[in-house]
Design a protein that fits this description.
Two copies of one chain form a homodimer.
Chain A lengths: L29 H15 L11 E5 L2 E10 L5 E2 L2 E2 H15 L3 E12 L4 H18 L2 E10 L7 E11 L15 E4 L5 H11 L15 H9 L6 E4 L4 H13 L2 E5 L7 H10 L12 E5 L1 H14 L4 E7 L5 E5 L5 E4 L12
Parallel strand pairs in A: 5-6, 10-13
Antiparallel strand pairs in A: 1-2, 2-7, 3-4, 5-7, 8-11, 8-12, 9-11, 10-12, 13-14
Helix pairs in contact in A: 2-3, 2-5, 5-8
Chain lengths: 349, 349
Amino acid sequence: MESNDNIGLSCPMPLSDYPNVLLAHGGGGKLMHQLIEKIFAPAFASPELEVDHDGATLPFAGRRLVFTTDSYVVHPLFFPGGNIGTLAVNGTVNDLAMCGAEPLYLSAGFIVEEGFATESLWQIAQSMKKTADEAGVRIVTGDTKVVDRGKGHGLFINTAGVGAINHNLLINPKQICREDVIILNGDVGRHGIAIMAVREGLEFETTIESDCAPLAKTVMKLIGAGMEIHCMRDLTRGGLATSLVEIAETSGLHIGIEERSIPVRDQVRGACEILGFDPIYVANEGRFVAIVPEKDAARSLDIMRSDWPDACIIGKVTDKHRRLVTMKSIIGAERIVDMLSGEQLPRIC
Amino acid sequence: MESNDNIGLSCPMPLSDYPNVLLAHGGGGKLMHQLIEKIFAPAFASPELEVDHDGATLPFAGRRLVFTTDSYVVHPLFFPGGNIGTLAVNGTVNDLAMCGAEPLYLSAGFIVEEGFATESLWQIAQSMKKTADEAGVRIVTGDTKVVDRGKGHGLFINTAGVGAINHNLLINPKQICREDVIILNGDVGRHGIAIMAVREGLEFETTIESDCAPLAKTVMKLIGAGMEIHCMRDLTRGGLATSLVEIAETSGLHIGIEERSIPVRDQVRGACEILGFDPIYVANEGRFVAIVPEKDAARSLDIMRSDWPDACIIGKVTDKHRRLVTMKSIIGAERIVDMLSGEQLPRIC
């Protein structure tokens, strides 16, 4: 269909299993990692391309700048607890925060399908402004494209973010050490289940709301208090499980977590049972883990609880295994936690 | 269809003429300006949101940083002279350059339709790398989302860019003065016509190739030589005409151009006549105007010609009228040049 003859090369990598992109290639799990490893990493390889982190840390004017981007294709566009605009702001702000950066500036690129309601566009722009104000970041540049009817899905938004690192910590998966403690800021699985409930018309006694929220202020408090954070990660596509597996694989260490310590709301647990999902694989938009040395664990937990009352310690780093996450179940059995395989919930962010 | 009740507001602006977004709202012309003015500018208003410029100039670590973004939805994805990937790199590099910034870092966000050929994705990633290398910029962070079949159009790409200003010039429409000279770097209309020819199956004796090219090196040469550039603008959506109208409106001054001095290749002129287009409204991807004081005009032209042999002076700034562009036609008549109204060529960038 497309003429590729403007590049005199053919694709050398063993993607013969997947001549076409599947929905699962965007799901945050194994196939997405393959796509990145086989297509994007070889093309864009550079010391700064941190495929295993939420953003790139770069020199600018003698200081450290963090740069990150995400596109948002969630459907439906409006859901309990937010909309595509709140997601697009919080998601990118949170990626900056996870790198230890103070979020400063956002860009916003809108891809609108012909026929989309201008009033909805206005509503979404208004909530982006409100969310940006809350997160202390400014939307400073933008772009709008309109695609033919039937060639989009209402609205897609891309945000990119620029932040500044104002401390001397190195925060990335390679910094974690044996005995480090893993702190989670609240219950998991709500964002994915909120989207799924709307999409599938599931009804619960009370509406399940997305946990979509900015995380930067909590992170700045932790850093400001001198907590020696080794790594942070927000638990979006692929959920808590996939994030921890990525960190374990990059660090070469073992992460052991306890199922009983991971908060999951009853309604979310119930919905997961009905739908056949495991809450630790369901996407969140306001949840993160901070991995800190044992000496800073109690204080870090206190600081996190001042913003997130349900924050808790869910496990620790060991060298018992290499590049592995294990979870002790409620009945005491230990099992290996794998990365999300295939696509659990498409287009939730 | 969508529930808007998570924001307790309704759209106050007079968009009653357009309850739904039209293709023309993305065309770079009057309707797009209305959309920006009524929806995005009020929501995101900040001193840095330069709706009348190609990027935002911002403080970072005591220096000036430029931040810009664009989404690319061109169709077909591969065309003579480039593909969506070369466009996505050059377009954002050029926006940085137009603000006088040295391009440093790019982000790349891919929105892939389920079923898209992985080989095409690989080809596009490879040409992005090649184009970035040529432009002296690095792709440092990225994101991939996959949307359901029928909810996208093969591939959309967003790039955002970060650049550094390493001089003391202020380069924006408000800096232009009476007697300033307008220099154009080459023939206009090729990108839009190249896309249109593929799309409509038009055949010419020789293939019309897009002019897609990076402009930053030329800009850095001009600045390095001490040229006092007042304003630059790359001539993308809406073409030469719309760019000059935007500059005239923001500056409050008059721009007078001469039709005979604007290079248009014969094939492009012929195609425009057949299709009913005016070449000065057709999009380019490697063309820009530099507006410089008369004292620097000859030297600037020489420098531009070292990279672009067809560069030429096409007009000048006066105060004869306010906020207006006029063009003296080949037969000597003077007419007002308006902004593109409606949509001439959809989805060419």
